[in-house]
């Protein structure tokens, strides 16, 4: 998995705002990743478990 590591998050603290978005579809997750969001989240629903593989360079 790509995206921000714990070290990245700690190093960023107080320096800038972390961009986060909550998504409701796999297409939204892909668009958020392409837009450069730092973190992408969704409600835990078993059917959504595979979405993270669609955005391997994002913290999902």
Secondary structure layout:
Layout: H1 6-12, E1 20-22, H2 26-34, E2 39-41
Parallel strand pairs: 1-2
Number of strands: 2
How helix-rich are the residues, as a percent range?
25-40%
How much of the residues is beta strand, in percent?
5-15%
Alpha plus pi helix count? 2
Total count of domains:
1
Structural class: alpha+beta
3D shape: elongated
Low-confidence regions: none
> What's the rounded overall pLDDT mean?
89
Taking Cα atoms only, what radius of gyration do you get, to the nearest Å?
12 Å
User: First CA to last CA: what distance?
Assistant: 8 Å
Strands in their spatial order, largest beta sheet: 1-2
| Largest beta-sheet characterization | 2 strands, parallel
Q: How would you describe what is shown here?
A:
The chain has 60 residues and is an alpha+beta fold. The chain has one domain. It is 27% helix and 10% strand. It contains two helices and two strands; from the N terminus they run H-E-H-E. It has a two-stranded parallel ribbon. The radius of gyration is 12 Å and the shape is elongated. The model has no long low-confidence stretch (mean pLDDT 89).
